[in-house]
Amino acid sequence: MWPFQRRKNTANTHLAFQGAAEDWLRRPRDADPDAVVLQAVQGQVEVALEDDAQLEGIKNDVDGTLLVPIPEGPFVAGESSFSVDLPAYMLAVHPVTNAQYKRFIEATGHRPPNIADHGQPVWQGREFPPEKATHPVVCVNWDDAQLYCQWAGLRLPTELEWEKGARGLDGRKYPWGQEWQEGQLCRWSRNKGKETTCSVWQYQLGCSPWGLYHMAGNVLEWCVDVYDPAAYERYQEGDVTPPVALMTARGGSRGVQSRVVRGGSWRMAHPQYFQCAHRLFNEPMVRYDNVGFRCARSEV
Predict the structure, then answer these.
(1) pTM, two decimal places
(2) pLDDT tens digits, one per residue of 72-116
(3) Are the CB atoms for 185 and 233 separated by under 8 Å?
(4) Residue 175 in contact with residue 167, Cβ under 8 Å?
(5) Which of 271, 93, 282 is nearest to 191 (CA)?
(6) Phi, psi (rounded to 5 degrees) for 14
(7) What DSSP string describes 228-240?
(8) Which of 15, 25, 92, 114 is deepest in the core (most CB within 10 A)?
(9) What distance in Å separates the CA atoms of residue 222 and residue 230, rounded to the nearest whole number?
(10) How many CB atoms lie within 10 A of CB 248?
């Protein structure tokens, strides 16, 4: 764990939290991510609690996830460009990798992602090719992702949290800006060659304003939300309550409640799919070879 402490004054806590985010944004693009985040935490968030208790920093002990602070406040959301105000939270620098997921399997006995309902699995039995260690895990359904997050003490992001992490505050079309750049800044079907996924540390110039990797391309990512086609209409009116699963009269879920996936993947061939505001959904129990996830955490 990377420890930090906070002041008794809540306002100062938020200032320190935002300071860590700003240091991350000013980092050199070729810097070692662990070192930069550690410096940001140590330099900005060393303040005292009344009882001197140590709080968790932004590297998660259980699975090694690096989490970037996203400050509270408004951002420009949706294709129609409206403002949404979110509390502070943390979002993972990159999707969960095969190496991280193996730690989860070994610790819990959970099934390996060696079966695909669509496409080809990367894993054979309980192992994956060594060169795929830093590639995002795929062939995980929504329940797999939920269970991993629970084990790690984290959670899946909401759809709005995911979008703010992808586009920053200014409503940009892609994580890196307004132009597609001929697809050179992300992994998609036109530049993958004979490969599928790539390492989570590739395409540095395609990072989002917060320094998050692969918010466009590589793999689609599960969000916690039930997919509601009208959700953004409610958000635009100021109601940011996440959609909930519809229930039958007997208390059970009505049919299969699709879950949100975001971000575009190595399989996709149209620039529209990689736009920050583009919404997609999957059946929660289906395992695809181009769908993974990243973790989030509420502010401490």
Answers:
(1) 0.81
(2) 999 999 999 999 999 999 999 999 999 999 999 999 999 999 999
(3) no
(4) yes
(5) 271
(6) -65, -35
(7) -TTHHHHHHTT--
(8) 92
(9) 19
(10) 9
